[in-house]
Amino acid sequence: MALSIRLSRGGSKKRPYYRVVVADARSPRDGRFIEKIGTYNPLLAKDSPDRVKLDTERAAHWLKMGAQPTDRVARFLDATGVKERAPRNNPNKGKPGEKATERAEERAEKLKAAEEAAAEAAAAPVVEEAPAEEAPAEEAAAEETVAEETAAEAPAAEETPAADA
């Protein structure tokens, strides 16, 4: 018989409470178990002593009998010093996925194109100096037309109150 030390869920909806149990590996998660050896309340603070309660003697006994703890229970057993747990290493965890790398490549291409355009503009400023001097003249002409429009509207606004009187 394959034994497992695992969590069995209790509590109500959105309020989980777990029992640490020794059970046959083939039995359902919340089903029949052989012995309850502790509790786990994930709603309590991480530094709370009531968050994880384990009977370490019984846990050591069942480990000697060949019971295999689940990942979460193995963490609890390591924290209490019953069983040493080797830390896992997943070097690919922080790497972005395929679509993210594609988007990053597209952004890099756009940035490179923008830098090239800026470099070309910086390399040829002599050619564009003459048009740069014309630009203020165009702005001055635009300001004159705006001034003419406001001057034309102002007398119309003055006539309206006089017509009402």
Lay out the secondary structure.
Elements: E1 3-12, E2 15-24, E3 35-40, E4 52-54, H1 56-64, E5 68-69, H2 71-80, H3 98-123, H4 129-164
Parallel strand pairs: 1-5
Antiparallel strand pairs: 1-2, 2-3, 3-4
Give your account of this protein's structure.
The protein is α+β, with helices and mostly antiparallel strands and 165 residues long. The chain is built from four helices and five strands. It has helices at 56-64, 71-80, 98-123, 129-164; strands at 3-12, 15-24, 35-40, 52-54, 68-69. The protein has a five-stranded mixed sheet with strand order 4-3-2-1-5. The mean pLDDT is 81.
Keywords:
165 residues, alpha+beta
Tell me the β content: 15-25%
* Overall pLDDT confidence: 81
Distance between the termini: 106 Å
Overall body shape = elongated
- Total helix count? 4
- Main sheet properties: 5 strands, mixed
